[in-house]
Amino acid sequence: QVQLVESGGGLVQPGGSLTLSCAASGGSDRLVVWGWYRQAPGGQRTMVASITRTGTTMYDDSVKDRFTISRNNALSSMYLSMNDLVPEDSAVYYCAAAPSLWLTLSAPWWGQGTQVTVSS
């Protein structure tokens, strides 16, 4: 069973940076695409960015040019580098993965989430 574990969340001031990590275990060779979703209090869970095994990336318009997703297949890890953070980026960030090319809310594997708070 694939397990995903996030780390790297925390409190940061507006304009600051954070890097989230997601480590996969238990069959990570099955992961074709993985990425990050986020959910603010009272809001829906929405996709932030995704990356395929071959490196094809997708970003939500709200984070383009500020966030960078990357992965290290050898280490079964994925990262989200977040720069120029704004309060609207505050949310619980979830790592998700799927054995297909498309990442959706129906993805079979999810992490437990890590809180990111952007506040002065």
Topology:
Layout: E1 3-7, E2 10-12, E3 18-25, E4 33-39, E5 46-52, E6 57-59, E7 67-72, E8 77-82, E9 91-98, E10 109-110, E11 114-118
Parallel strand pairs: 2-11
Antiparallel strand pairs: 1-3, 3-8, 4-5, 4-9, 5-6, 7-8, 9-10, 9-11
Using brief descriptors, characterize the structure shown.
single chain, 120 residues, mainly beta, 7-stranded mixed sheet, 4-stranded antiparallel sheet
Written description of the protein model:
The protein has strands at 3-7, 10-12, 18-25, 33-39, 46-52, 57-59, 67-72, 77-82, 91-98, 109-110, 114-118. 0% of the residues lie in helices and 50% in strands. The mean pLDDT is 95. By secondary structure, the chain is mainly beta. Strands 2, 4, 5, 6, 9, 10 and 11 form a 7-stranded mixed sheet that branches. A 4-stranded antiparallel sheet has the order 1-3-8-7, with no helix packed on it.
Class from secondary-structure proportions: mainly beta
Distance between the termini: 40 Å
Question: Which percent range fits the helix content?
Answer: under 10%
How many helices? The count is 0
**Total number of β-strand segments?**
11
| SSE succession | EEEEEEEEEEE
- The low-confidence parts are none
- Work out the strand percent: over 45%
3D shape: globular
Work out the radius of gyration. 13 Å
Give a short account of the largest sheet: 7 strands, mixed
